[in-house]
Automatic annotation (TrEMBL):
Gene3D superfamilies: Rhodopsin 7-helix transmembrane proteins. The keyword Repressor does not apply. This is G-protein coupled receptors family 1 profile domain-containing protein. Keywords: Cell membrane, G-protein coupled receptor, Membrane, Olfaction, Receptor, Sensory transduction, Transducer, Transmembrane, Transmembrane helix. It comes from Hymenochirus boettgeri. InterPro entries: GPCR_Rhodpsn, GPCR_Rhodpsn_7TM, Olfactory_GPCR1. The chain crosses the membrane at residues 92-111, 123-144. It is a multi-pass membrane protein. It is found in: Cell membrane. GO terms for cellular component: plasma membrane.
Length: 150
């Protein structure tokens, strides 16, 4: 019996301290505006940087290699995660799949670099365009599955 009253007291104390913490930020409207502007600037810089990477890769023939193809996919994945995480932090499932996609893309990029370093003579025969597309597309299906279900 005393365990329930003690746990109820602890729960009420935690709730009241959380409420006072959250309500404390309501009076600081200038801080909220500064944090909002700071967030907008960083999101804009992040998105514009990834757009510059994608445009540079597609506009220049020098970047016509599998490493840059996968780097373009990684930039696209990061752009999607930025646009989803920033406005709606409650979609944890979608955020998790985006992080999983980025992890798979980094794995594919490391496999690409492994082949380029350890098997340089066979690299161009193994990493042809369609195999790169296949590797990139295997990283994205979980995201499509979640987006179609949601």
């Amino acid at each position: 019996m005393t365990g329930q009253t003690f746990s109820q007291k602890v729960l009420k104390t935690k709730q009241s301290s959380l409420n006072s913490f959250l309500l404390g930020f309501q009076s600081l409207s200038m801080l909220q505006i500064c944090l909002l502007l700071n967030n907008i600037v960083f999101v804009y810089l992040h998105l514009s940087g990834n757009i510059v990477v994608i445009v540079m890769i597609f506009s220049n023939d020098f970047f016509n290699s599998p490493m840059y193809f996968f780097l373009c996919n990684l930039s696209l994945s990061q752009m999607l995660s930025t646009t989803i995480i920033t406005p709606k932090c409650s979609k944890f499932c979608l955020v998790g799949t985006l992080l999983m996609t980025e992890s798979f893309l980094l794995t594919v990029m490391s496999y690409d670099r492994f082949l380029a370093i350890c098997r340089p003579l066979r690299y161009s025969s193994i990493m042809h365009f369609w195999f790169c597309c296949y590797l990139a597309l295997t990283c994205w299906p979980y995201l499509y599955k979640i987006c179609l279900c949601a």
